[in-house]
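Pilot study result, target chain (463 residues):
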Amino acid sequence: MTPYTIIFRESGGAHSTALTAGQHFRCDIEEYEGFFGEPLPALLVDLLRIASGIYVVDRLIKRRRQEQRRWWSRSLSLKVGLLEPDFWSDHEVHAALTETVEFLTDDTWEFSFDKDDRRRGRNGQKTLFRISPESRVCLYSGGLDSAAGLANRIANGPQSEVLPVTIWHQPIQRRLIQKQHKLLTSKYDVLISPLIMKAALIWTPEIQPFREELTQRGRAFLFTAAGAVAAAMAGATSVEIYESGIGAINLPFMAGMVGSRMTRSVHPEFVRNVSRLVSLVVEKPITFAIPFGDQTKGQLVKAAADHGLHDLVRSTVSCVHYPLRESRHKQCGVCPACIFRRQAVSVAGIREPATTYKYDLFDSPSKANRVSLKRLKYMRAFLDQVVQLDEVAPQRRLPARLRRHLLGTRIITDEQSPGPIIRLLSEYRDEWREIAARAARQGFSWAGLLEPSTPRQEGASRA
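Predicted structure:
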């Protein structure tokens, strides 16, 4: 791959670190030129270089321990070698980049750019991508929302071709996505032309002293940048992100979950910011859309189940700790992502194999009731949130905590009606209450953590 250099340090650090693409990290920008059969414009190359630099720095500079809250956010400096550094130093572009990345990661970033015009082309035969009004460019992770979302879009309307964009760093992820695409093309008359780009660290002696940061909020910027470049090359004006409205809003369910403690990868404000930035780069409007933003995760998955795509749903993974590197289980079953997934799959009425999760909270009462209280921490948090959502109802004032989140993170403004969000959260709450009632009848002890809905003072918690 083309070598280019990034130089970074954390504020207060004594030394800067210089890393080179192809030697210390991979971001296969040339994959685009092989896919489309033509060179990328310089500004699109630069966008991917910046995004890869953010991804690398975000992984290599560790956040402080969770209890040291004032140090959770970092101050980071990043210099990237670009083909057109003057463009990125322009005040409007620089400000848009900084605002977008700082909102996403909840860190302070100082960006600067050097001239680095090294380029290596990649020979390739242009993919037979047919541009038509029905063609879709989308982000595709292989997770539950992306698979169900793409399936529903294909099932509900004809497309001549779909271009899903994926960033991967593990071979198992690539194979999983290819399997999912095969399931869809075997059922529907659609051509899926995936653009799959690898982004990964190369653990050379220069970077081995770093302790890897696991939150990796900057990965979402690399993902959206990759989607924007694909859209620009394909002549599209929109990139779809398949996420439920509950996931996009991402209402904190535990105290202290603010800023980067909760992912903002599909947050409406981030989506607006990144749309504005890439439109400046491409010099024409390119927007990121969330077509299922008015649905719960359960509704999104149930629609896929109604189309007979149970096997597609079962093929997806959601676990924060995936893969567990165990021969029997690949997902833990007790992290927030697993619980959110299992709630949605339960709404959809899909049964998963007994070996899917290491800790079983939904399928077998005998197994679930043996799970330790420590591992029920996130389940308790979800149920606590359900209790708090009892205060959400039409014609009632929004609870203070919810209002702060919606207005403070700019999901809505004072001028916008919260009605659609009230409806969405009410439906999500009712899904959980139905699941808990059924679980109580079956003998799941965790269902007792959720008391029947009763009037109470705002802010009270019974879970």
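One observation from the pilot: DSSP finds 16 helices and eleven strands in the chain. A full batch analysis is planned for the follow-on phase.
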